[in-house]
């Protein structure tokens, strides 16, 4: 994989690209007049990160569109919260202002953003992502994305994005040190397939949760361990979750109350 920039980059973009190349053990390549297609051919594995003034784009081959950070549906959910509406994830987890939440499978940090807005300035959201490319992409996006709403921007900036495997991280945490521990493992039965989803899956951790990790989560959580999965999944029963909130989007939440 290589890391490069948009044509005629600013000093800030150049510095960011070089920093990411070092972090990800990738080659930094000057863009000059090369097209993305040419750069992908030079990369060796058909993958490239392109840093621009607005965003960081991850390319996995030249056929699919690039992956970049966007709050997507989380932004809509937070706007509903701003109007005083409810959110099933917050209701089922019992999330309150000032809570400490560990999102063990951050992905694009959509649920982390909802949690961060809900816990407010007195709370803490730790978002764990085991895959370095995805973690860097999302971390940089959370730190720079402008939603047009100051309180939403603040919620993004407060998220503590950490590149760690969740089992290792949980094992290091003291008993009862978080209010909520959350899992959103990548669906092994895809709900939606598109080129963007495909690019995401190429750098996402597809491992199933283990019973050992769930036991660690129960030890760390003061109140709730919650999991989102495909509603037809057998993971709820296998891992000991009570299935709740089945809706038309084909997902459901599993809940374990530990308080």
Write the layout of secondary structure elements.
Elements: E1 2-5, H1 11-23, E2 27-28, H2 36-43, E3 47-51, E4 56-60, H3 73-82, H4 88-93, E5 100-103, H5 110-119, E6 124-128, H6 132-144, H7 150-158, E7 160-162, H8 166-172, E8 178-183, H9 195-201, H10 211-220, E9 221-230, H11 235-239, E10 242-244, E11 251-257
Parallel strand pairs: 1-2, 1-3, 5-6, 5-8, 6-7, 8-9
Antiparallel strand pairs: 3-4, 9-11, 10-11
Task: Give a concise summary.
This protein has 2 domains: 2-60, Brix domain (Rossmann fold, 3-Layer(aba) Sandwich); 73-191 and 203-257, Vaccinia Virus protein VP39 (Rossmann fold). The protein has helices spanning 11-23, 36-43, 73-82, 88-93, 110-119, 132-144, 150-158, 166-172, 195-201, 211-220, 235-239; strands spanning 2-5, 27-28, 47-51, 56-60, 100-103, 124-128, 160-162, 178-183, 221-230, 242-244, 251-257.
